[in-house]
Specification:
The protein is 31% helix and 30% strand. It is of the alpha+beta class and 144 residues long. Strands 1-2-6-5-4-3 form a 6-stranded antiparallel β-sheet, with no helix packed on it. A hairpin with a 7-residue loop joins strand 4 (79-83) and strand 5.
Length: 144
């Protein structure tokens, strides 16, 4: 009897799963290693200087991890703009719809993620490997 109850309880725990996702406190974008909270303050087209980046990654809603130019609210490809007369260290503009921009204000530096390092160093390592292979092959052909 006890064995049956234990097996039953084990089955209940093994077949039920708890899936939880994060609920973000605010909409944000990450650019150049900084997190910006997206506000409702509109920015006029005449105030925009130039495109400075775009959303390239989405955060993991389960773990809360993110890297690179990310956003928890806007799709990949959403453009970031420099605002005339405002340092990009304090605020940037985000294109939320076609020809509609809002201000995003600096909140804090983005936390370190290993992919931030990998995306910067990996192209360099690949280039160095290709150069090393070319040099080794050239030496081998000269030696023959």
């Amino acid at each position: 009897m006890i064995r049956t109850i234990l097996v039953f309880i084990l089955c209940i725990f093994s077949f039920t799963s708890s899936v939880q996702a994060l609920s973000w406190a605010y909409s944000f974008v990450v650019w150049n290693g900084n997190v910006y909270e997206v506000t409702e303050e509109n920015v006029l087209k005449s105030e925009l200087v130039k495109v400075i980046g775009e959303v390239k990654t989405k955060p993991n809603d389960m773990a809360g991890n993110y890297y690179g130019d990310a956003s928890n609210s806007y799709p990949k490809g959403t453009k970031y703009y420099e605002i005339m007369g405002t340092s990009t260290e304090s605020a940037i503009a985000v294109e939320i719809e076609e020809k509609q921009w809002v201000k995003a204000v600096y909140v804090h530096e983005a936390p370190f993620h290993w992919m931030d390092f990998a995306t910067k160093i990996l192209p360099f390592l690949i280039l160095m490997t290709v150069v090393a292979i070319i040099i080794l092959r050239m030496r081998r052909y000269k030696g023959e």
